[in-house]
Amino acid sequence: MITLVDKLIFVVIDGLGDRRCKSLFGKTPLEAATTPFLDFFAKNGKVGLVDVVDPSIPPTSETGILSLLGYDVLKIKISRGPLEALGVGIQLSDELAFRTDFATFRDGIIIDRRAGRIREGIKELEKAINERVILEDVNFVFKSTLAHRGVVIFYSEKFELSEYVSDTDPGKAGVPPKICKPLILGESEIRTAKAVNEFVRKSHLVLNFHKVNLKRKAKGLLEANYLLLRGAGIGLPKVRKLPEVYKKFWNCIAGSPLEKGIARLVGMNVVDIPEATGDVDTDLRAKVKALFDFFDEYDCFFLHIKGADEAGHDGNCELKKEMIEKIDGIFFSEIFSNVNLKKTILCVTADHATPCELMRHSSDPVPILICGGKVKKDEIDNFSERSCVKGGLGRLRGIDILGLLMRELGK
Ligand code: ZN
Ligand code: ZN
Question: How far does Cα 48 stand from its chain's mean position?
């Protein structure tokens, strides 16, 4: 009897790749973690390493994910602002969008770029900014999205806004925020940068004395009294949609606006997971439930799993190891128990490495495993950066991954 391989589960673990950690006795977090289910899949499939964008270019999450979905990110213009807006359902035309983060600002310094990962009171802060900040030449809408994350959209009848302005996010704590500057010395860029700085200054005044923040301070929590802006962009890149390219229906199961925005851009359905809280355990349960709830309705599933990247940015090897163990124990155990791998291709990889020693993304190659369907086994029986060096998939480019998976799926 012929068994039809008709499903793909493509799992991207954000920032999974890493380097050897001293505190883990020279192992990487993935290598040190106990991951019986990922190891099972590696043992029954093939592993390898992926240069997600290019061996010399550290991917952002957006370039990493788009590369893994087969897009040449060196040739398309990708701005984070409009993608994040699309992720929360706002389709923009000629407005200027930025990704924002609530941060903690004291004595001229950014103490924390995520305001203690604030979750409560963000809608009140959003309302105060929208109602009380008034800019001279520009209008705006600010929307908080998930925890400290948000988007701000600027539009103006008085002049043409430009996306060629710099970020205000300094990229690390312990330093002052940056001033938004024109990247080209044109009138439009100069006026846009001025408006962005005016927005940052005025929103700080509103946030700093807001009761939500006064209460946070009284409780010893970090106040969300500053907005950091990055990823200025007008419009979205024009890309061919995946269902058009491969004639398959995709469902995206992701929690963050950026990944949802990317999914919408490439033509995937996006599942809203209301029970996801941003907490790793609940997110994992909600995501695996969403996968099975919709399993019969789609051909391909794109799952994005957070947690490991955050631990990498915090430079916390032990926490990253624990996150990976949770992902294995809660998420991949369910895949192991409930998915018929004869009929399904499973691929697990990362959008980039976030080595704990760097506390930022790097261009290090990331591990990948592919199993199920007719994928032949290689000699490797576990999933780690080190074991993947010798894997049967060899070294791949991010842009080639989806084509490879589609071939396995018989397309
Ligand atoms: Zn990422
Ligand atoms: Zn990251």
Answer: 22
* pTM recorded for the entire structure: 0.92
Sign of CA dihedral 312, 288, 61, 73: positive
Neighbours of ion ligand 1 (CB under 5 A): 14, 61, 309, 351
Beta strand ranges found along 137-249 (DSSP E): 139-144, 149-155, 226-234
Residue 280 has pLDDT above 90, yes or no: no
12 within 8 A of 304, measured Cβ to Cβ: yes
Q: Which bound ligand lies closest to the C-alpha atom of 14?
A: 1
Per-residue pLDDT reduced to its tens digit, 125-154: 999 999 999 999 999 999 999 889 999 999
Per-residue pLDDT, 275: 62
Q: How far away, in angstroms, is 171 Cα from ligand 1 center?
A: 15
List strand residue ranges (DSSP E) for 235-306, in order. Answer: 250-253, 269-271, 300-305
As a whole number, mean pLDDT of residues 179-200 equals 97
Dihedral of alpha carbons 378, 381, 382, 385, sign: negative
CA-nearest of 80, 102, 93 to 203 is 102
Alpha carbons 338 and 341: distance in angstroms, whole number: 9
Instruction: Output the CA 350–ligand 2 centroid distance in Å.
Output: 11
